[in-house]
Amino acid sequence: MNAPLRKAGVVILVLFGLLFANLNWIQAYKADDYRTSDYNGRVQVAEYEVPRGVIEAGGQPLAESKATDGNLKFLRVYPEKQVYAPVLGFKPVNIGKVGIERSENDFLSGASDKLLADRISAMFTGDAPGGGNVILSLKPKAQEAAWKQLTNNEGGATKGSAVAIDPRTGAIQAMVSFPSFDPNPLVSHDVKAAGKAYEELNKDKDKPMLNRATSETYPPGSVMKVIVSSAALKNGYSQETDIPAGPEFIAPGAGNPIRNAVDSVCPQSEVTLKVALRDSCNTGFAKLGVKLGADKIKGEAEAWGFEQDDLTIGNLKGDGLPIAASRHGAMQNPDGGTDQAALAQSSIGQNDVRMTTVEGALMAATVANGGKQMRPYLVQQLLSADRRPIYNANPEALRTPTNEGVAGDLKEMMVNVVENGTGTNARIDGFEVGGKTGTAENAAGEDPHGWFVGFAFKDGQPVSAVCVMLERVPASHGSAEAARIAGLIMKAAAGGGND
Fold first, then answer.
1. The pTM of the whole model exceeds 0.85
2. Of these four, 93, 342, 376, 463, which has the most CB atoms within 10 Å of its CB?
3. Residues with catalytic function
């Protein structure tokens, strides 16, 4: 055999070897990925042979499957449209699924190992097993109150979010993000129409498909003073300890002074810690943060959940909606030393501090629950197609940021904020309500963000904790509007109506 033929033979053998290796790679390692791919047409048809399970809350169906006469036998329907979309997500024919539809896909489709007995039983009975049902912890009255009040807010905000939690269990009572979207066009069996609807939403500059409650972080402003207060109480301060205040404060190395919202707020040289929180004294907390030091402020923030980047909210024993990490910022000079100016600004929730709405609700819930932070969840129960219980959420602690004594002091201070300070709009007749407002400066020339975190007690028991965040509120009192909305959400969550 001459040299050219030998070379050609070697090349052919190598190509056959590579082809053989690739086939084995696909069969041994990639088969499951291809089988479960959202773009596998045969799998798609098979998935629609049986009804996908219902997602519901409070006995109300939020996602269900309706029979059709088409090749795909069931159409996914979302009766509440925008109200629950950021939580539910959607399950389209040929686009990647998101939200609870994604995290609970195996159970909803009937493919979960938890439903193996049902599939085996169906082999003998000849029945086609349907998907399992997912019961969410959301309270429809609270969800609807949050949606109604956010989308019709009196501050003129066009974007925002709210989260309400049961402090005792971690059950999410409401989770709203606006603007939102109608998932129904995205699950159309007309894949071209569904793709077009998706592209239009994806290109929308207001990002309606973004869950702002879980995925966006913002400067929290004075809400951060709850964290700084906790650090102070852990380090020898009491509610009645005097702290330096005054009309302005220029931290070492700072170019601009920190001032209070208005001249009438803590102009005196000293105020008590309790009064400083009640009146939201910027100078007092900036000076307090500098005195405590960056390590204590950062450590306290982390104790409450800042910097956690692996939290999900869904099933306590499985996957869920990913939660963006809240950040306290570095507060460091290039040489590694503390940047006092950054520390002062961070202590009033500015500089590089960033927080999610979820984290704000967890903060309030922790105070209400005596210092114990419960792991938040959305999936309350899983039921088989015939409504047989498969899973029930068993609440579990996520962390314990502080002790009962400090939590008790913070509760008293936050109740004082609502009864006598900046949070009076959150009052609810018949409830003990505490909270903290926050107005966060934004980029130059833009309106500030308005925040409120708070909790409500009924007959001595915590019934709800909430965080409301309004983006770029044109009005000068965005935090007051956030407080008003928060009070109505907590009232609805406690069964007190949603008007």
1. yes
2. 376
3. 222
